[in-house]
Write a structure and sequence with these properties.
single chain, alpha/beta, Rossmann fold, four-stranded antiparallel beta sheet, ATP-binding, ABC transporter ATP-binding protein, ABC_SmlMolc_Importer
Length: 255
């Protein structure tokens, strides 16, 4: 379990995070949802270890990691811009982190990741010839082969549209279920959070506005802010909010 206790972070005397508490179970997908400036990216940096909180504690499986440097935390991140090496092939990008840590992942496990992400047809392609969805899958695979305990995703779907976005959402859900991997996702899109996550942490000006399942947030909004930010936005996009929660047959598009 990942646990945050009373996390506080300020920059130049401006409080960005104010008393954030969070518990995430193994295998859960949790979206960190909020408007620009709500503190969601700062919270991701604190979890990853890029920032140290001014107050509060961060635990993983009971171990205090608050002062633990980023490289020693069992976490990894996929950045919004993918951060792939343009001069390398998809396979070379995928295995780049294993050059000095090849023992982390066996060849059989590597092939399982490739199959899970549907990357086999694209392995020898240079990065510049891949679509946005294909690049996203390579970025996910490059992180997964390092076997993180917690996977952090920074706006993973913001540059994708339509069928490609839905396919990546399905793959993220498959990864969490297949690998029992804890996944935290930063997003500003309520519909994305609702359809992708087991639970949602809604931030408003650095404080928790609500934490719960998508159904709880829709049916029992904790404040007028949550009602306005999430429910009203969804109502402008869909005539029937309940349609979001209808079981859907997984679709893995060829992308």
């Amino acid at each position: 379990m990942l646990e945050l206790q009373n996390i506080v972070k300020a920059y130049d005397q401006q409080t960005i995070l104010n008393g954030v508490d969070l518990k995430v179970a193994q295998g859960e997908i949790v979206s960190i949802l909020g408007a620009s400036g709500s503190g969601k990216s700062t919270l991701l940096k604190v979890i990853l270890g890029l920032e140290t909180p001014d107050a509060g504690k961060l635990f993983y499986e009971g171990q205090d990691l608050t002062q633990c440097p980023m490289e020693k935390r069992p976490f990894n991140i996929v950045f919004q811009d993918y951060a792939l090496f343009p001069n390398l092939t998809a396979y070379e990008n995928l295995t780049y982190g294993l050059k000095k840590k090849r023992q982390l992942t066996t060849e059989e496990e590597l092939q399982e990741f490739i199959d899970l992400l549907g990357l086999k047809p694209h392995l020898q392609q240079p990065i510049h010839r891949l679509s946005g969805g294909q690049k996203q899958r390579v970025a996910l695979g490059r992180t997964l082969v390092m076997k993180p305990k917690v996977l952090l995703l920074d706006e993973p779907l913001s540059a994708l549209d339509g069928v490609i976005k839905e396919s990546i959402k399905t793959r993220i859900q498959m990864i969490a279920k297949t690998l029992q991997l804890t996944i935290l996702i930063v997003t500003h899109d309520p519909e994305e959070a609702m359809t992708l996550s087991d639970k949602i942490l809604v931030l408003n000006q650095g404080e928790i506005a609500q934490f719960g399942t998508p159904q709880q947030i829709i049916q029992q909004s904790a404040s007028p802010f949550v009602e306005e930010f999430i429910v009203k936005q969804l109502e402008t996009k869909r005539h029937n909010i309940e349609a979001i929660f209808q079981p859907k047959r997984p679709q893995l598009a060829v992308i």
